[in-house]
Every structure is written in structure tokens, then in C-alpha cells.
Amino acid sequence: MPRPQSLVRPLVRALHPYTPGEQPRVRGLIKLNTNENPYSPSPKVLDAVRAAVDGRLRLYPDPSADRLREGLARFHGCEPRQVIVGNGSDELLALAVRSFVEPAGAHGSTESRSTVQFFSPSYSLYPVLAASHGASVRSVPLAEGFSIPSVGALRKSGCFDFRAALTLVTTPNAPSGAGYSRETLRGLVRATKGVVVLDEAYVDFAEEDALQLAFDHPHVLVSRTFSKAYSLCFQRVGYFIGHPDLIGALHAMRDSYNVNGLGQIAAEATLRDLPHYRRGFSRIKRTREHLRTELAAMGWEVLPSQTNFLMCQPAGASAREWLEWLRERKILVRWFSAPELSKWLRITVGSEAEAEALLRAVRMVRETISG
Ligand SMILES: *Cc1c(COP(=O)(O)O)cnc(C)c1O
Fold first, then answer.
1. Which residue among 93, 192, 280, 359 is least enclosed by CB atoms within 10 Å?
2. Going by C-beta distance under 8 Å and a sequence separation of 6 or more, which residues neighbour residue 160?
3. Distance 125 CA to ligand 1 centre (A)
4. Is there a contact between 202 and 176 (Cβ–Cβ < 8 Å)?
5. Per the structure, how many domains does the chain have?
6. Does ligand 1 lie within 6 Å of residue 199's CB atom?
7. DSSP string spanning 49-95?
């Protein structure tokens, strides 16, 4: 009998899978580690999902999520053929890799045709998607303050491949929270020949979005999700907007029923009650600025944020130690072991009450370590 391990492709055996933030089931835990929204979806969304839970669960959902794509097209002022919906935007990011990038060593492929490129640090799923496809990976360091280097600087450094098959840009950036202007991104996409995905998972908390670039430039796709800003992580609904030819390629590669029926219904109902969510964005942005001021007053270095999380360097002890001390007080935040990030904690902006609980815990730990 062969050993089961030997039946697995070498590429898969060598894979370092993505590490999601923990979802522990601990009572009373304050979860500030995965950038979930602290507020419930609109009551209208909950009603719509409840009303759909009956014998119809035996039927397949709409394979191309037509009603939802029509709603999204109206919302963004485009046509449904410029929209594809996925099982979370993560699915669409994976489809982009499979649709636009040749595996390295494929017949007739060149280095650039096989390259998935992204800035570092950014969303840590990207290298996993590239590796699982057998693509070449290019990780391009961000500049001072997690900013995007100028096109001139990118040309000079030689790190950036202007012909890479796929460039993934997290904007606003995660995990730093840095925001990028539309014109900065326009400069970058103008200089780039391959497909560029602008991953706007956090854009509803930012000052500016770059959706217009997907309408102005046929090689640009904008990625959005209902998960973070629209309190719908559980349902897994994300979407891409862009040129019908690129969107059509992704449709050709996706599973027939890639978006579950309750997810489609929840997302459609979300679009019918946007004011509910806009009130939440304002509250989260207010809490974000309050947290930032209070943590800075205790000597923490807190970066400006255009997202629903704050990137902080705690004072008095290492980020790793703070992670453990906060966890002992039932507050979960995110720490990344990668050397360039290990000094930082990423803290989701929760509700007003969660922010106060975090500040109380930080004050208590501070007294303990200084006393
Ligand atoms: C959360 C997140 C996503 C994934 O969102 P889903 O739609 O839930 O799959 C994509 N990109 C970034 C940068 C994220 O933080």
C-alpha cells in the first residue's frame, strides 16, 4: 500500500495554508482579532433571511445571482455583466489567480505571465493563493508609513514587475490601516500591464474609494465584500466589478452555484437598507479615533487608520506579551509572527463598550507592569 502522504501532490504537501484569526467559543470573550463588525445586520436583513428558511432550502439557488448582481449594478452605476458575486471575496481572489496567471513552467509561459505580485505587508492570503496555483510570487516592500512607493521608485528598485500577470493591492491596506488616494492608485495601474485587483475590503471606513478605476481602465478589477462593513461574514458574499471580458473569464471558472441562497437573499436585503449601515460606519470611525487618542496618550504608537482596525505598537512590553495579557482579560486581538510585523498588534475597532473594556484592560496591565 502506498503511504497516503505520497498520494498528495508535492506542491500541496509543501503548502503553508492561510492562518485565519481564531474563532474560539469562550463566553464573554471580546473579539477584536478578525475585523468583524460589532453591530448586527439590519433587522430587515434578518427578517429576509428568516422568511426564506422553509421547504425551498431543497432547491438550488440562482446560479448567477442575477437579482443581487442587478442590485449591485444599480448601487454602483454599472451593468450586471460588469459584476461577479463570489463565496466571499476570497473565492474571487482565488479565481483571479486561476483565470489570469499561468502556473510557473507551463508551456509557453514567461516569468511575468506566471507572476502574482503584491505589496508587503498586505493581505496574507495572497501568497497562499499564488503558491497553491504554482505561480511565482513577487512581494514588493511598501515604503515609509506603509505607503505605496512612487512609480519612479518602483522602476528604480526593480522589485516591481510592471508586466506581472496579476497584481493584488489591498486598499486601504491591511494590516496597517493606511489609506491610498485614487490618484496614487491610478498612477500605479497606468504603469502596469497585467490585471490589477484593488481589494477594497475596508473601503467603507476610508475617505476615498477607487471604484472609478475599474470603469476607466479595462485591466482593473475592484474587489468588495459584504463581510466587514455589512456585518455578513457568516454568509460569505463578496463581489468584483470590472470589464465584462475579465468578469466573464471569472464566471467561466467558477462553480455553478458558488453563492449560497441565504447569502444572496441577505446581500440583496442589505442593499435595500444602506442607511442602517452608514450609521454604523460613522460610529465605528468615531470609536476608532477615540481609541487612537486614548492609546496614544498611554504611550502606544498607533498608526492613522482608514479601516475598522488599528495597528499599534504597545508600550512597556512586547506585542507578544500584550497579546497574552489581554487574552487573560478575555480580550482577543491579532498578532502576526512575521518578523516585519512582530512588534505590532492589530486591534479591531469594536463597539463603544468593547473599546472602553479594551482601554480599561490596557490601563490595568499598565499599572501591573509599572508597579
Ligand atoms: C476580510 C478580507 C477579505 C475577505 O473577505 P471575504 O469576502 O469575507 O472573503 C479580502 N481582503 C481583505 C484585505 C480582507 O481583510
1. 359
2. 117, 138, 140, 149, 154
3. 9
4. no
5. 2
6. yes
7. HHHH-SGGGGSPPPTT-HHHHHHHHHHHTS-GGGEEEESHHHHHHHH
Q: Are 164 and 117 in contact (CB under 8 A)?
A: yes
Q: Cα(370) to centroid of ligand 1, in Å?
A: 38
Domain that residue 119 falls in: 43-273
Cα 299 to ligand 1 centroid, rounded to whole Å: 31
Q: Give me the pLDDT at residue 65, please.
A: 98
Query: Given a cut of 90, is residue 13 above it in pLDDT?
Result: yes
Q: CA 292 to CA 230: how far, in whole Å? A: 23
Which atom of ligand 1 lies at the shortest distance from residue 174's CA?
13
Q: What percent of the chain has pLDDT over 90?
A: 92
Residue 170, ligand 1, Cβ within 6 A: yes
Of 213, 243, 273, the one marking the end of a domain is 273
Please tell me the predicted confidence (pLDDT) of residue 18.
87
**Are 35 and 64 in a shared domain?**
no
- Which atom belonging to ligand 1 lies closest to the Cα atom of 233? 8
**CATH code: domain of residue 160:** 3.40.640.10
Domain boundary (246, 273, 300) is at 273
| Ligand 1 centroid, distance to 1 Cα (angstroms) | 41
Burial class (CB in 10 A: 0-12, 13-18, 19+), 323: middle
**Mean pLDDT estimate for the chain:** 96
Per-position DSSP letters for 213-280, written without gaps between them: HHHH-TTEEEEEESSTTTT-GGG--EEEE--HHHHHHHHHHS-TT-S-HHHHHHHHHHHTTHHHHHHH
279-311 burial string, b = 16+ CB within 10 Å, else e?
ebbeebbebbeebbebbeeeebebbebbbbbbb
Q: Are residues 92 and 236 in the same domain?
A: yes
